[in-house]
Amino acid sequence: VKAELKIIRTIPELQRVLNDKRSNHKTIGFVPTMGFLHQGHLALVAKAKEQNDIVVMSIFVNSAQFGPGEDYEAYPRDEDGDTEKATQAGVDILFLPEQGEMYPQDGGIRILPGSQATELCGASRPGHFDGVLKVVLKLFNIVKPDHSYFGMKDAQQLAIIETFVRDFNVNTEIVRVQTVREEDGLAKSSRNVNLSENERIEAPIIREALKKGERLFHEGITTTIIEQQVAEHITANCSGTIDYVSLLSYPALTPYEGGTGEAILACAVLFQKTRLIDNIIMSTGR
Ligand code: AMP
Is 25 noted as a catalytic residue in this protein? Predict the structure, then answer.
């Protein structure tokens, strides 16, 4: 029998329950999400279960990270379905705060990410990563997790959070989890349900194009040519338009200049109602 899932909606109750766990020397693994759960989220839970006594998942569609005209309202939500999936996955505590619970007042203080946030998604979503850091810091302070789990699907987010935690001595260990994909290669995403039938058929081209870029990278082709080729491969085979295709160092997200270390080839594609992102991390130690 599975241990029971505890649903908690308020910060004081979550803190009370977790203080109790901590005083019983339980380690806490934390999986922050915006819900509409899929196998990607559940891979984070599986990793958290391996490494901790208690797994806390939060589901909170964070208004602070959506810009004007973005899909905050259209973002898919399914509390009952998520509760079922979280139970099956073995989540111990599901934290489901309302917006007013997380943001009851605003004293005007902001956390500003650095140059990592001006690239890739940061360029077309100004303020997005400010909102991500805001919610993540609040959640870390509330949950006080030993380990916190983030997906490589959102590689820029992960890079910024790792840097924040390192530079500000935030007391949790960040664990990276590989991107989980559909059988046709499309990265699992809550937003995939907002694709039209035809767009869903086209969408795996994003992964194909990144794979092609990876091959070119290992052939020693220059950054600009790789970015062009990947963008062309996408536009030639799909109705979506390119937001960006970009090859950078990882996790610094500075221009890629060869040498050892990791590089990221990332892209964002705009469909009618949905913006999809994906990336490949490439090792350059050769
Ligand atoms: P989200 O609910 O989309 O904000 O995502 C919550 C967490 O799940 C983030 O750390 C994401 O990077 C991660 N995640 C989302 N999709 C995937 C995926 N396909 N594979 C692995 N992790 C994912």
Answer: no
Cα of 23 vs centre of ligand 1, distance in Å, is: 30
- pTM of the model as a whole: 0.98
Cα–Cα distances in angstroms (integers) from residue 280 to residues 70, 206, 231, in the given order: 25, 11, 14
- 41, 128, 147, 233: the catalytic one is 41
Tell me the pLDDT of the chain (286 aa) as tens digits: 567 999 999 999 999 999 999 999 999 999 999 999 999 999 999 999 999 999 999 999 999 999 999 999 999 999 999 999 999 999 999 999 999 999 999 999 999 999 999 999 999 999 999 999 999 999 999 999 999 999 999 999 999 999 999 999 999 999 999 999 999 999 999 999 999 999 999 999 999 999 999 999 999 999 999 999 999 999 999 999 999 999 999 999 999 988 888 999 999 999 999 999 999 999 976 5
From ligand 1's centre to the CA of 226, what distance in Å? 26
> How many angstroms does the Cα of residue 221 sit away from the middle of ligand 1?
31
DSSP conformation letters of 36-62: S--HHHHHHHHHHHHH-SEEEEEE---
